[in-house]
Design a protein that fits this description.
This protein has two domains: 273 residues, 3-Layer(aba) Sandwich (Rossmann fold), CATH 3.40.50; 189 residues, 3-Layer(aba) Sandwich (Rossmann fold), CATH 3.40.50. Helices cover 37% and strands 19% of the residues. It is built from 18 helices and 19 strands. A hairpin with a 2-residue loop joins β10 and β11. The structure holds adenosine-5'-diphosphate. Adenosine-5'-diphosphate binds next to β14, β15 and α13.
Length: 491
């Protein structure tokens, strides 16, 4: 199959979250199976033109009643199979993408012209295909920035030279929908009838994702449980009605993890690699973790790790909220150590710094560090992830691969990947709670620490069960193929 991925992010070129990992990993997995994959991305400021090949001639993109001109660059996606490389095409438009920041910068988190930037990007995807004379079977759009791709296909391009192409749209995070003043709508070059027929209308605003969800032939999100949850008013972010309406075409496909990077048997960032047969490297990682974070070296005390963006979605309010968060009482009452790596909202960073001064068994590094994230996954006994909502979540899958038991809220992809500890049978791979409250977090961490001291053999058995589980992209890629085939069948 010929598949084009339209995305605003893909590693190693542009990343703010899990979307970037998923797009590249899925593309590589599909190419390995033998499909022809191309990715279209904006050429952002930090993507060096001199490392890319420029296609001959400029390209006109019809937007805003006229035409915007852009150059197109290309390169191969690193890690591509030699015989069937994934080609990445970059749309180069200086005014839209020549600046620092993908969606914004700290002093302007959502660029004012984002509706125009991503309308232009989505229209340019079709022009790239025309330019290279390559018409895909499937246009696969990711999240709101690419959500107009299925809309443009349905309302215009399909009646032109894309008659044999179908579309799919993946939701990586329903919390971000691209909702803007409808004054921006004229920029799409679509008629006002389409504004209403395609379902752009969102209380008199223009909602990119909503229109995409209505227009795409097939929809999916990144875990089966999140697919169910997003069809309820609690997790639907006001689009649950649209998703219920489209439920026959909407499914959940779990993300995989990159097992070359996240694998205790070949991890370059930990002192000694380890696996199911010899777990001694995990103890070494724990010692290195305690040293790196300045905690007392003690192999017998349980370490709880956290790696997270410090935002409301991740449940950090219930852990670190001043006066009501559970972190203080967890660290005061229990004989454990807690390490955190993360960055995000200033109030939370400040609270974490203050806690690490006041508590001898809580240490945190504010910032982003790949090396330390590997050390935490390997060296911790437990990994805490109390997300408010979690489309898939990667860290709990990394934890399972490293024999670190996740302590997670029973939501989204966390519920699909972690099995709750059963005290009677010893079955399970982690510890779960339902309510997002400080006391539920406190009690579940307490339960895990209790089990660490009193049910050691069950804890060790759970580690092995988790490590045996595979979260490979090959499995997920096959499910995406089924989705593409179902879309093509309707064609
Ligand atoms: P989300 O995409 O919602 O942030 P995920 O769990 O799906 O959550 O993926 C987050 C990814 O970012 C993981 O690979 C995680 O290890 C990484 N990450 C988050 N914060 C940091 C940090 N401060 N340092 C290193 N890696 C981080």
């Amino acid at each position: 199959m010929k598949i084009l991925m339209a995305s605003s992010e893909a590693v190693p070129f542009a990343k703010t979250g899990g979307l970037a990992d998923a797009v590249s990993a899925l593309s590589l997995a599909l190419a390995k199976i033998g499909h022809e994959i191309k990715i279209v991305l904006p050429r952002y400021y930090n993507i060096n033109r001199s490392e890319l090949t420029q296609l001959e001639g400029e390209m006109g993109v019809p937007v805003g009643g006229g035409e915007e001109w852009s150059a197109v660059y290309t390169t191969e996606l690193p890690g591509s199979p030699k015989k069937n490389p994934v080609a990445v095409y970059f749309i180069d438009h200086e005014q839209f993408f020549g600046r620092d920041g993908i969606y914004g910068v700290p002093w302007e988190p959502d660029f004012l012209d984002n509706p125009r930037r991503f309308t232009f990007f989505c229209r340019a995807v079709f022009q790239v295909c025309r330019k290279i004379g390559w018409y895909p079977d499937v246009l696969h759009a990711h999240d709101w920035p690419a959500a107009l791709v299925p809309v443009f296909l349905k309302y215009g391009e399909k009646q032109r030279d894309f008659s044999k192409t179908v579309s799919a749209l993946t939701i990586h995070n329903l919390g971000y929908q691209g909702v803007y003043n409808k004054d921006n709508f004229h920029y799409t070059n679509l008629g006002w009838d389409v504004f209403y027929n395609a379902g752009f209308d969102d209380w008199n605003m223009m909602n990119f994702l909503k229109a995409g969800l209505n227009a795409a032939d097939k929809l999916n999100t990144v875990s089966p449980n999140y697919a169910r949850e997003t069809q309820t008013s609690i997790h639907g972010f006001r689009l649950d009605g649209v998703l219920r309406y489209r439920s026959a075409d909407y499914l959940g496909i779990l993300n995989g993890i990159d097992t070359n990077v996240w694998n205790p048997q070949k991890d370059k960032f930990i002192p000694k690699t380890y696996g199911i047969k010899d777990m001694s490297g995990k103890a070494d990682a724990k010692a290195a973790l305690q040293e790196t974070f300045g905690l007392p070296p003690n192999p017998d005390v349980p370490v709880v790790g956290m790696i997270t963006r410090l935002t409301e979605q991740k449940g950090v309010g219930e852990v670190f909220g001043p006066a009501y968060g559970s972190a203080w009482s967890i660290c005061r009452d229990m004989n454990l150590q807690v390490v955190l790596l993360g960055s995000g909202e200033p109030w939370c960073e400040n609270e974490i710094k203050s806690l690490s001064y006041r508590l001898s068994n809580f240490k945190a590094h504010i910032g982003y560090s790949e090396k330390e994230s590997h050390l935490i996954e390997a060296g911790s006994d437990f990994f805490l992830m109390p997300s408010r909502y979690e489309p898939c979540g990667l860290n709990q899958m990394y934890s399972l691969a490293y024999g670190t038991l996740p302590i997670v809220r029973n939501t989204g992809g966390l519920a699909d990947t972690v099995q709750n500890f059963n005290e009677e049978t010893g079955a399970g791979t982690g510890f779960m709670f339902d309510d997002l409250t400080p006391s539920a977090i406190y009690n579940t961490v307490g339960w895990a620490v209790w089990a660490y001291y009193n049910r050691r053999s069950q804890i060790e058995a759970m580690r092995i069960t988790g490590m045996k589980h595979s979260f490979s992209w090959e499995k997920s890629a096959k499910k995406y193929i089924e989705m593409y085939e179902a879309a093509c069948a309707v064609r």
